[in-house]
Design goal:
heterodimer; A: about 250 residues; Rossmann fold; 7-stranded parallel beta sheet; 9 helices; B: alpha+beta; Uridine Diphospho-n-acetylenolpyruvylglucosamine Reductase, domain 3; Alpha-Beta Plaits; 2 domains; 6-stranded antiparallel beta sheet; 21 strands
């Protein structure tokens, strides 16, 4: 088995995931990419191989099929050194709050799937004695708002899960990084008009993630200004907050 | 709606812009539109890649598809930038055969404008190193064209300003090089006829370009510095240097428009004088590829130096036999009316690709003008003069030409047979192309 370090990227078709793949490959990592439809990863795999002359393998993984997670992890050529979970489904709050099943999908995709997968990986990392886990959560999880609380609450759960997991595996040498990107210019946010000063590029997110893993950080806001924005939002008393609309 | 503009930041046009992330998304967008233009990285100076109704920005369709490490053939999507190519392949000893003065152009843009570099007199333009192109035609079908397959469409597409179809992907040939360094030397020419003559005398140089002082008068009229370059061999690279140096860091970036009064005839002519006298003492040297080919790329948004109004670039080519007379008249006109042109560049072309492509035998001059009323009028006057001398204007730079001033050397009727009727740019509408 080669000694080259490996990163597993789940939800590999997302823009943040791709930027992270490029960053880690340029730092000499081999890539394991997982997505629901692995054939759609083919062009991505070719591009990454040409750019970085590194090993890239595509795997199929549906984040909603929990029962298959152990088999999936067993099927990997080897347990990676780093795992990134970039799965996310923003949904459409206005529709989702009317449709029960839409809400279920958003909650399961953003909370249950990622948490269960990373939990199982953490268990294996713990046994091995090292590993880094990166979860992409969201500032939307810091406080529920009318405009996106279904997504936000799932991300909030995910953040709490990562926090607890970090606490549990700390002694075994496994590091957990929670990433709160704020706005990022990606497919997911394409239709929204985002203020450029608050909006990071995917490459910027990838650079920050790489540096944070290296220094074993716990929680990062990609643009530090978000820490203060959320501090303000979280400090508004509920009796005022419930009357606000944003 | 977004405000779109070219590298010259003039004109600025409210447009609908879409940025597809995949071929499927692109196809869906095109299927539902009857008037659009594809846009690369926005480095054409004027309105070549803007359509008010719909501008389709291709920068996210930017994957490498196949690489042949033996032959140097690269197949890639059209949103790939030359910078990506250098970043990936220079460390392996490959470089683009032809590169313009910025590495931030897309492959699609490079083909559509048939861009040229400092080696045009030897190697010709970008199109010479394109093996084939996949174009999206009017029926939204992908059509491959090359010198042997749909050959006419291929020739009209090289330099065809993106009007024959949306360039989706292409195969290009890279050049094997031994190092990322260029041996540079300079030749001082004290007047215009010396300047023209020195191109002839240095025809064997791999790279050549002259920086010319348009504002000098009297016996210094048309003085220039001819900069010549050759790829350095591996054993010519200084011992402590990397054989393939990395891209330079950005020195600084302009976050706002410089005040409009900064550049005028006085400041620019003072700069020119300093630069000229300083260069006399410049010894021949070995410089890295980034400094040599892309001196301005290390200053982010240098295009804001011309202030809020923006600027336009005037680039023409004159037939060789009228170079001296033609450029004498052009410089006189510039000295009489203009307010400061920072950068004027003279370059000799070898024979061109014909059809819509701009480069052709002769000498080309490029210079920037702040987009003031006086300068726009001057630009139009210069265009008329170029037409009188049998020359041509470079569409990738143009932002001001009127339809009556555009006298292409190709047959417009013939072009119509290969032109995609749905594709229009503000420029193609303006010059009735």
């Amino acid at each position: 088995m080669s000694k080259t370090k490996k990163i597993l990227i789940v939800g590999a078709k997302s823009d943040i995931a791709l930027a992270v793949a490029n960053k880690y490959a340029s730092e000499g990592y081999e890539l394991q990419l997982a997505a629901r439809n692995s054939s759609e990863l083919d062009p991505v795999v070719d591009d990454l191989k040409i750019r970085h002359e590194t090993n890239v393998i595509a795997y199929e993984l549906d984040i909603l099929k929990y029962e298959r997670f152990p088999d999936f992890l067993d099927s990997l050529a080897c347990l990676p050194d780093v795992v990134l979970c970039a799965v996310g489904l923003l949904g459409r709050q206005n529709d989702d709050q009317q449709k029960f099943l839409n809400s279920v999908l958003v909650m399961r995709t953003n909370y249950e799937g990622p948490s269960l997968l990373l939990g199982e990986i953490a268990r294996r990392f713990e046994m091995r004695g090292h590993g880094s886990i990166i979860g992409i959560s969201s500032v939307a999880g810091d406080r529920g708002r009318a405009s996106n609380y279904i997504y936000g609450s799932a991300k909030s759960g995910f953040t709490a899960f990562l926090s607890g997991l970090r606490n549990r595996v700390y002694k075994s040498g496994v590091n957990i990084l929670t990433v709160l990107p704020g706005f990022v210019a990606t497919k997911m946010t394409q239709s929204k008009n985002l203020p450029s000063i608050l909006t990071a590029q995917p490459e910027e997110v990838a650079d920050k993630i790489f540096a944070a893993v290296k220094t074993k950080k716990n929680i990062i806001y990609v643009r530090p200004v978000w820490r203060y924005i959320m501090l303000v939002i979280c400090s508004i008393p509920e009796f005022i907050f419930k009357r606000m609309s944003f | 709606m977004t405000e779109l503009f070219g590298w010259g930041r003039f004109p600025k046009i409210q447009s609908r812009e879409l940025t597809p992330k995949s071929e499927a998304e692109l196809a869906a967008i095109l299927r539902n539109s009857k008037s659009y233009i594809a846009r690369g990285n926005g480095r054409a100076y004027g309105d070549s890649a803007i359509n008010k109704n719909l501008t389709v920005t291709m920068t996210h369709i930017n994957r490498f598809l196949r690489w042949n490490a033996k032959s140097g053939e690269l197949i890639a999507e059209s949103g790939v930038l030359i910078a990506d190519i250098i970043d990936t392949f220079l460390p392996r000893g490959w470089f683009p055969y032809v590169t313009p003065g910025t590495k931030f152009v897309s492959l699609g843009g490079a083909i559509a404008c048939d861009v040229h570099g400092k080696n045009h007199h030897k190697d010709g333009s970008f199109g010479n190193f394109v093996n084939w192109i996949d174009l999206i035609n009017e029926d939204n079908q992908v059509l491959r064209c090359s010198r042997s397959e749909n050959a006419d469409l291929f020739r009209w597409t090289i330099g065809g300003m993106g009007l024959t179809g949306v360039i989706l992907r292409c195969s290009i040939q890279l050049k094997k090089i031994e190092s990322g360094w260029i041996k540079q030397r300079s030749v001082i020419n004290n007047n215009l006829s010396e300047s023209l003559k020195s191109f002839h005398e240095n025809k064997d140089a791999q790279y050549s370009v002259a920086w010319i002082d348009c504002l000098a008068t009297g016996k210094s009229f048309g003085r220039s510095i001819l900069l010549l370059g050759e790829h350095a061999k591996k054993d010519e690279v200084k011992q402590k240097s990397a054989v393939f140096p990395k891209v330079r860091n950005q020195k600084f970036s302009l976050f706002f428009d410089a005040p409009g009064f900064l550049l005028n005839n006085f400041t620019v002519s003072a700069f020119n004088k300093l630069y000229f006298n300083f260069s006399k003492f410049m010894p021949s040297s070995c410089v890295d590829w980034d400094t040599y080919f892309y001196p301005l790329d290390s200053i982010g948004n240098w295009n804001r130096i011309y202030g809020k109004e923006g600027f336009f670039q005037f680039q023409c080519v004159l037939p060789e036999e009228v170079s001296l007379e033609g450029y004498t008249k052009l410089f006189f006109a510039i000295q009489k009316k203009s307010s400061g042109s920072f950068l004027a560049v003279l370059k000799d072309f070898g024979s061109g690709n014909g059809y819509v492509s701009f480069p052709r035998k002769g000498l080309t001059l490029a210079l920037d003008f702040k987009a003031s009323k006086i300068n726009i009028a001057l630009g139009k006057q210069l265009t008329d003069m170029v037409n009188d001398f049998g020359g041509t204007i470079y569409l990738a730079k143009d932002a001001i030409m009127e339809d009556v001033q555009y006298n292409p050397t190709f047959s417009k009727d013939e072009f119509l047979k290969y032109r995609n009727r749905f594709i229009k740019s503000e420029q193609s509408i303006r010059v009735k192309l």
